[in-house]
Amino acid sequence: MNAQEPRLPRAHGEPVLSANMRTTAEDFLVEELSGFEPSGSGEHLLLTIEKRGVNTAFAARRIAEWAGVGEVAIGYAGLKDRNAVTRQRFSVHLPKRVAPDLATLATGEDGGERLRVLDNAWHSRKLPRGALAGNRFVLVLREVAGERGAIESRLQAIAAHGVPNYFGEQRFGREGDNVANALAMFAGRRVRREQRTLLISAARSELFNRALAARVESGSWNQAMDGEVWLLDGSRSVFGPEPFSDELAQRLAAFDIHPSGALWGKGDLRSQGAAAAVELAAMSDEDAVALRAGLEAEGLKQERRALRLKPADLTWQWLDGDVLQLAFSLPPGTYATVVLAELGDVLALGRGG
């Protein structure tokens, strides 16, 4: 499957490469960036785990079995794919502060499914979802086809200007049918509680992507529009609309603030003027209206998300004539696949949930 749905327009022009990704798990390395330091005391054992070939849910179950506790005692900040090498924290609630031998938690061998403990420390509370500063990626693209100069120029443009902050394909289900299922759910189909959460997220993401795509097509995804609402970099704080000024222009150029788009819910749309008109026009067909109504009925409130995403510390090197390694960091809730999509058509040979 390609890194980005074809209908989502690219900001930097036509594709400059085609490549394969995830030929092996080691070609997709993801490391959580910690959002805090362990307290050093408490009833929760923080484990930094490196895993290969297993997803986060499987690892959580394995840790619970090892500790002799229920899965409710396990905490983790985010979900990580199966077909990758990932490093992330888990917390285990152990009220008596007695942990089994850490060596017995390690499983598997090189080249297959594997868990191993990289670090451990005591902490005062369970690790909640979202408790991370971001993720660091080291990705290897193989069988790269394209002119090297054009590829490097595109990478320089991404480093300088960022990319549209689309929700990645992961939000829309393995078969891409989460939005259709959300429409059916909003029309009355009964679904399991955990499935309901996924479908609500997909519906919101679909509407956001539609509005962002319209801004990309107009060339305004990284610029100010009349009635713009601004989101402060690295936070959920928003302000505006207010008249565009030299100060705002400087902050926009410095990536201190970003234009934002709606995460749909109840209440008035915060953007105004031309910015609001673009958002509403992109969400005005029959399906979009049904998605909006469904989200409002679920009680979600209007929120905002940045329209642009700048990979931090983006570097690249050619490991061979057709093998390209990329390294960069992203904030929570953003997707490496949307960075790759600005390069071209990247085929993921292995995907895991």
Structure description:
The protein is 27% helix and 29% strand. Among the domains are: 36-130, Pseudouridine synthase (2-Layer Sandwich), CATH 3.30.2350.20; 169-309, Pseudouridine synthase. The longest helix is centred in the middle third of the chain and has 26 residues, at 193-218. It has helices at 56-67, 148-161, 178-186, 193-218, 246-253, 273-282, 286-297, 336-341, and strands at 17-21, 28-34, 44-52, 74-76, 85-93, 107-108, 114-123, 132-145, 163-164, 230-232, 238-239, 257-263, 303-306, 308-309, 312-320, 323-330, 344-348. Helix 4 crosses helix 6 (273-282) and helix 4 packs across helix 7 (286-297). The chain is globular and about 60 Å long. The protein is built from eight helices and 17 strands. The strands form three sheets. Strands 1, 2, 3, 4, 5, 6, 7, 8, 15, 16 and 17 form an eleven-stranded mixed beta sheet that branches. A four-stranded antiparallel beta sheet has the order 11-10-12-13. A hairpin with an 8-residue loop joins strand 4 (74-76) and strand 5 (85-93). It is an alpha+beta fold and 353 residues long.
